[in-house]
Amino acid sequence: MSSGQQAGYSLQTRLLLAVTLVLTVFLGLTGFVLDSAFRNSLETGVTEQLQAQLYGLLAAVDEDAGEFYISENLREPRFSQLNSGLYGLISSPDQGELLRTPSALEFTLPAAPLTDNPEGELSRGETRFSRVVSDVGQIEYFEISYAVTWENRPQAIVFKVLESADSYLAEVTEFRTSLFSWFGALAALLLVSLLLLLRWGLSPLRRLARDLALIESGHAESLGHHYPSELSSVTQNLNLLIQSERKQQTRYRTTLGDLAHSLKTPLAVIQGEVSASAEQSLRHEERIERLAMVQEQLDRMNQIISYQLQRAVRSGTVGSLASQVNIKDTAAKICRALEKVYASKSVEFGQQIDARLLFLGDERDLMELLGNLLDNACKYGHGKVNISCALVSDSAQRLQLIVEDNGTGIGQEDCDRVLQRGVRLDTLAQGQGIGLAVVADIVQSYGGKISVERSQMLGGAAISILLGNIRLQG
Amino acid sequence: MRLLVVEDESLLRQQLVLGLQKAGFVVDDAADGKAGLFQALEYEYDAAIIDLGLPLLDGISVIRKLREAGRKYPVLILTARGDWQDKVAGLDAGADDYVVKPFRLEEIQARLNALLRRAAGFASPQITAGPISLDTSSKRVTVHGNPVELTAYEYKTLEYLILHIDQVVSKAELTDHLYAQDYDRDSNVLEVFIRRLRQKLDPDESLQPIDTVRGQGYRLRVMD
């Protein structure tokens, strides 16, 4: 969460805000386009109409001895009706106004054109179209002017027809009103349906939050399985995480319990030895003997602590949350280290491991497993150690890992004791190393199998491990 | 043999230092990684014992820097956690062996002896030079199979010479590696030890195992 401000908006608010913005821009642009298209076509209609009126006027006007008059009945009745809103005027540049239609007898000609028309006089045969506003009452007019050559007059005669824009403006207003009310209704409908869709679409997330709250408060063990596919991988992984967390907790608790319990026996022995040693009458040899006993118990306690610590630290994470560790690299690293430790034995390591094999789990677990096995092989072998990994033929998902040496091997009765799974260390025999017990524990936690055999290759011990949590890279 | 012990736990450090001194080593100590690295680079040691969890500079970094600076003497690491990740990391950084805490002093001594021997090129604890045979673990010396009684200092002198057989070892080097720093370098104690060694190893003067190289020091001869 980079900024608290952003994190504050809910998903729903974000989507709604974004859609509202997009909708506003989209509807606004559409409205503008529709509006200008409508006005354009309306204006074209008006122009054509005015042109027709102009031609009608032109046909109805005649001249007699320099006086213009309307020779026949005008086809358009509005020309004859006073202040009808349609006015015709005839003028010439040198004589001024020559004739008005009856409708324009009280009409004041607007001075300024509304649209910026080219200034100057009309040349003969030219038509000019413009919008003007009257000085009185601010009424808007469409105006069409046409210059004609009249019989023997030297100057052009200008015919002008003006029509009030009232009906045009009313039509535009009406169009706009209906356009915007439709758009408004549409936008409201879209937003409401989006809100409903969002509530429906986001409901699994709300359910997830509710489920998590239930887990937090201890009312549920895990998330349900009824999530949509986009979320199910998240919830499955969350479930895994919760489970592994629980397992870890349980492991810590048992380890701690085991630890406390198993330390009490040696502590009791030491306690006894110390009080016995406090006696004055004790002979020197006896005291030495008792000290040796204390030392023995101390060793035992140390062993117990190391074993339980290793058990507690292990993660045992299996599944999609586990990391992938290259088995060959890890084994090579450990062999290199052991070569140093057992330099005086000059141990020869054979390694047959496919470089593509991956261990799905904690790197520490794999290191503990291989470290203990290889260390034992170096310790008890006579300078030859081999580690090999092979996929078991019946299924590609199982791996057999064998660590063998050329030592004396492990007797059958010892094998069983050493491999007893989950055995508490205070029940293990004295002086027995914890290495194999730790390995057995790790293998068990990954659902694998461990067995002690005799090495066919080297003649010594061969520890064979079957693991399912592996993957072949690439 | 001069050792460096780097350990931050003061009780454990004292125990180690005292125990190793008792076993005949000359021991310097440091309580944190920085001081340890300084000492490790400043003086020529025969071996170092370095704890992995150190304040100021962790053990692995100390070892890595030590090796980067070209110091080749063996390093033994102490680790409390004892898991393989720690051990492998330490050995990878350049350490030669490890001991997991808690440990017995005897174990440290055995590992140290093995490392020192290995560093000198001997595989087994039994080192022989002609008829002279020296066991670095039991610290017993025989000539022609007959045991020879040596004092601790005489033994240390012979051990150092035999680990550097056929090399001239200067008096200063011997003094550095055999005695604590405050030792009076001008005294002729070393010559006394050498003389007594010669008498004890070779009473009839038939072997003449230790040469005196004039102006340079002493050398244990390779004998048939």
Account of the protein in words:
The complex is a heterodimer of chains A (474) and B (224). Chain A has 474 residues and is of the alpha+beta class. Helix content of chain A is 50%, strand content 19%. Chain A contains ten helices and 15 strands. Chain A has a five-stranded antiparallel sheet with strand order 4-3-7-6-5. A five-stranded mixed sheet of chain A has the order 9-11-12-14-13. In chain A, α2 packs antiparallel against α3, α7 crosses α8 (363-380) and α8 (363-380) runs antiparallel to α10. Chain A is rod-shaped, with a radius of gyration of 51 Å. Chain A starts with a helix and ends with a strand. By secondary structure, chain B is α/β, with parallel strands linked by helices. In chain B, 41% of the residues lie in helices and 21% in strands. In chain B, the strands form three sheets. In chain B, strands 2-1-3-4-5 form a five-stranded parallel sheet, sandwiched between helices. A four-stranded antiparallel sheet of chain B has the order 6-7-8-9, covered by helices on one side. In chain B, a hairpin with a 2-residue loop joins β8 and β9. In chain B, α6 crosses α8. The longest helix of chain B is centred in the middle third of the chain and has 16 residues, at 105-120. Chain B is elongated and about 55 Å long. The two termini of chain B are 27 Å apart. The model of chain B has no long low-confidence stretch (mean pLDDT 86).
Using the CA coordinates, give the radius of gyration of chain A. Answer: 51 Å
Structural class of chain B: alpha/beta
Largest interface: A-B, 22 and 20 residues
The overall strand count of chain B is 11
What summary fits the major beta sheet of chain B?
Answer: 5 strands, parallel
Shape of chain A: rod-shaped
The helix-strand sequence of chain B is EHEHEHEHEHEEEEHHHEE
Major sheet attributes of chain A:
5 strands, antiparallel
H/I helix tally of chain B:
8
Give the quaternary arrangement of the chains: heterodimer
Helix fraction of chain A by DSSP (H/I, runs of at least 4): 40-55%
**Low-pLDDT residue spans of chain A:** 421-431
Cα separation of the termini of chain A: 35 Å
First-last Cα distance of chain B = 27 Å
Please trace the helix and strand order of chain A, writing H or E for each element: HHEEEEEEEHHHHEHEEHEEHHEEE
What amount of the residues of chain A lies in strands?
15-25%
**Total strand segments of chain A:** 15
User: Spatial order of the strands in the main sheet of chain A?
Assistant: 4-3-7-6-5
